[in-house]
Every structure is written in C-alpha cells, then in structure tokens.
Design a protein that fits this description.
Keywords: Hydrolase. Belongs to the thioesterase family. This is Oleoyl-ACP hydrolase. The chain is α/β, with parallel strands linked by helices and 253 residues long. It has one domain: 3-Layer(aba) Sandwich (Rossmann fold), CATH 3.40.50.1820. Helices cover 41% and strands 15% of the residues. The protein is built from ten helices and six strands; from the N terminus they run H-E-H-E-H-E-H-E-H-H-H-E-H-E-H-H. The protein has a six-stranded parallel beta sheet, sandwiched between helices. Strand 1, helix 2 and strand 2 form a beta-alpha-beta unit. Helix 3 crosses helix 4. The mean pLDDT is 89.
C-alpha cells in the first residue's frame, strides 16, 4: 500500500463503490463527537448518484488511539491535503453542526489555493460562521458534557449510562468541542460556489432565521431547506435529506 493510499484510508471511509456514470464526490464532515459511520445510512441512500466519502477525524473508533485535533483551521488543512490526493477532483462538501464549520473552512481553502473543483457547499445544523454560540462545553465536567449531549439528543441514552463507553468517547467529544468553541471566523472573500443550508425546525442550536446568515457567504446561489426535528433531524429524515442532497448534486453541476 502506498503512503498516499494509507493516508486516504485513514481519513476517508468508502461504504459503497462509486457510480460509474459520475465524477463527483460528496465529502461528509461529522458533528462534534461524531464519526464517519454517522453518514452510513446517507451513503447507502446516495450510492446510485455520487461517491460518498465520510471523513473520519482522529480520536474515535478505529482512530481512537490518536489524539483529537483541537483546531478547526488545522483540521481543515489536514483534510484539504487528503482531498487533493484523491483521484476524483470535483467535490461537493456536506457538513453537519461542527462539520458545517469545518466544511466551510475547507471550501475556502479549495477556492483560494487548490486545483480541486468545488461544486457546492451544504451546511447543516449550524449558524453562519461569524455567529458564536459558545456554551463552554469544553470546560464542563463529564456530567455537564453528557447533559449537553442529551440536550441535543444525538446519542442513545443507554450508551451514556455505560462507564466504559463514556471513557472511550469522552476524549474525542472534548477535543471536538475545544476545536469548535475556540474557532473564530476570519473575514475573507465570499465563496464562489453555491451554498445550500439544511436545518431542523426545532434545532436548539440554530433557528431557520439564523441559518439565513449563510446567504452572506456566497456569490453563488443560496437555498435553505427546513426539516421536521431537532439538531439531529438527519437521523429521522434520512430519506428526505437524501432527496435534498440529490437535488443539490444535480443543481451544482
């Protein structure tokens, strides 16, 4: 195995073969504490229309032995280098929550200094970049972190009652919250690519009105879609989200 392929397989998960009739890859960025496997159902639904490439951050699942990266800019730089090594050069970026912030920073880097062709950005469950929503989760004790996770309803409560599971996942969760809560937007040019925003109607992290702020970060088209549900509406609305992304993939080309 070449070094390049080894790095790709460390960072990128492929749950299904790429369709033969497309040269577009949908790169998926998980939420804080999340992993590439969160996007497995979506990858299955989109398998006929795009190569779906969920990103696996350090510090979780098969990368649990690695320390998490606690900086959004550093994560963006690392992921850009991996994406530039892929054979397919036409990309759509899709990020949920912290992943939306990270996808935005990768998108900026692509447009500013990469030969990759960025077709579009899809941001889910996240306020526009200049908006800070720092609840200080990175400074909470374990009980406080667990309470925040429960508030967002993103993890099965049964897992949060298992001490072994808590010890296993807590370093990645804390590292991710350190990254996203310390992130500060640096003003710069608007994206040239279109931006599509997805949001749950009852998301405590972002209202549909706040999600409109993404419009100010693109010179391309802007679309906002609302779905029933809270911060993790994707789990409940997988079919509808897959349909929306299929429409975006077709429109961005």
């Amino acid at each position: 195995m070449t070094d390049t392929l080894a790095v790709q397989e460390l960072w990128i998960r492929r749950y299904h073969p790429a369709p033969e009739d497309t040269d577009v890859s949908l790169v998926c960025f998980p939420h804080a504490g999340g992993s590439a496997s969160y996007f497995r159902p979506l990858a299955s639904a989109l398998a006929p229309v795009a190569e779906v490439l969920p990103v696996q951050y350090p510090g979780r699942q098969d990368r649990r032995a690695e320390p998490p990266i606690t900086s959004i800019p550093r994560l963006a730089d690392e992921i850009l280098a991996v994406l530039e090594s892929l054979p397919r050069r036409r990309l759509v970026l899709f990020g949920h929550s912290m992943g939306a912030c990270l996808a935005f920073e990768v998108a900026r880097r692509i447009e500013q200094r990469s030969a990759l062709e960025l077709l579009g950005l899809v941001a889910s469950g996240r306020t526009a970049p200049p908006t800070l929503r720092d609840r200080g989760v990175r400074s909470m004790d374990d009980d406080g972190v667990i309470a925040e996770i429960r508030r967002l309803n993103g993890t099965d409560d049964r897992l949060l009652l298992d001490d072994d599971v808590i010890r296993m996942i807590m370093p990645a969760i804390r590292g991710d919250y350190e990254a996203v809560e310390s992130y500060r937007y640096e003003p710069g040019p608007r994206l040239r690519c279109p931006v599509s925003v997805l949001v749950g109607d009852d998301d405590p992290q972002v209202t549909p009105a706040e999600a409109q702020g993404w419009r100010d970060h693109t010179e391309g088209g802007f679309t906002l879609r609302r779905f029933p549900g809270g911060h993790f509406y994707l789990a409940e609305q997988n079919t509808q989200v897959a349909r929306a992304l299929t429409e975006d993939l077709a429109r961005f080309r």
